[in-house]
Amino acid sequence: MVNRPRLEWSDGKLRYLDQSRLPHESVLIETDDHRVVARSIRTLGIRGAPAIGVAAAYAVVLAARACGAGPEQARHCRDAITHLSETRPTAVNLFVSLERMREQLEAGASAGDADLSRRLEAIAVAIHREDQDACARIAALGAPLIPPGSSVLTHCHTGALATGGGGTALNVILEAFRRGSVRTVYVDETRPLLQGARLTAWELVQEGVDTVLITDSTAGHLLKLGRVDSVWVGADRIAANGDVANKIGTYTLAVLAARHNVPMYVAAPVSTVDLLTVSGDGITLEERGSDEVTSFGGVQVAPDGVRAYVPAFDVTPHTLVTALVTDAGVVRPPFGETLRDLIGQRPRAEVNR
Ligand code: MRU
Same domain, yes or no, for 181 and 307? Predict the structure, then answer.
């Protein structure tokens, strides 16, 4: 297996590869400043729902370490949490992590905790460890769903860089590949920022997988030709009824997969399930700047004055999802009750305080 660089926490610093510059440049960021982490999340240097959640937790620790103990430290951490929560609206992992950090912060602050940053660090490390475990379980549970000789299609990037561990949907595909089941992986380039072309193809090629890059609009043609046996994607937020918010274009793929009777699998940790949001209609979908579509690689490709509509995500109705592959189990329709039970059993890592 290729040793891929991941989010790393050591000596009070967070280290990560700037995903916005891959694969042409491998820029390793090392920072002890929570604002640098927030900026990276906003600019997609750190992206992918689980990775955003893990990085945000460490960013709160960085904020705590930047101040001496006392009310000033607690205030600084609260400001950091607010700042981080404003970076991206859709991935629920960000808010779940920040809420856990806030709980610890408020408990410690009201008790006059002189060791607050160490306790916050323990929670962040636990969030990270839980994500690593979740990724491993998702791969083990999902791989048997890919029968030998399969060709699969994936969208966006759901590999190691997008998580604190080995990845979600892409981790399933890689595990199935290692078991000898995957013939070819078709990768949507994933407009507009090319997470598929830049990151998924990069990870798969390094692993020696037969990888075929396609434009997003080629997917329907490929499915019609019968060349795809299953479709695998991740999620930024899964509503209580099983509706899935994920990278723009996922809904299109789901409709096409249903039209051609091809299974559509969504792989995500239970930390991506948001029981407080009843259905996909309640999910805030981020809109990004028009330059992400009117320019390509920094070169303007559309006329001055044109408007662009750039949602980063769409919602796939649960009726189009064959199964949710989570770390707590593979869930098939009807999703509602099963998802609620799973959240009750959400695995949490032991916290070393
Ligand atoms: O805008 P991005 O690149 O952060 O969007 C990411 C996705 O849509 C992923 O599919 C999702 O976060 C799952 S990553 C394991």
Answer: yes
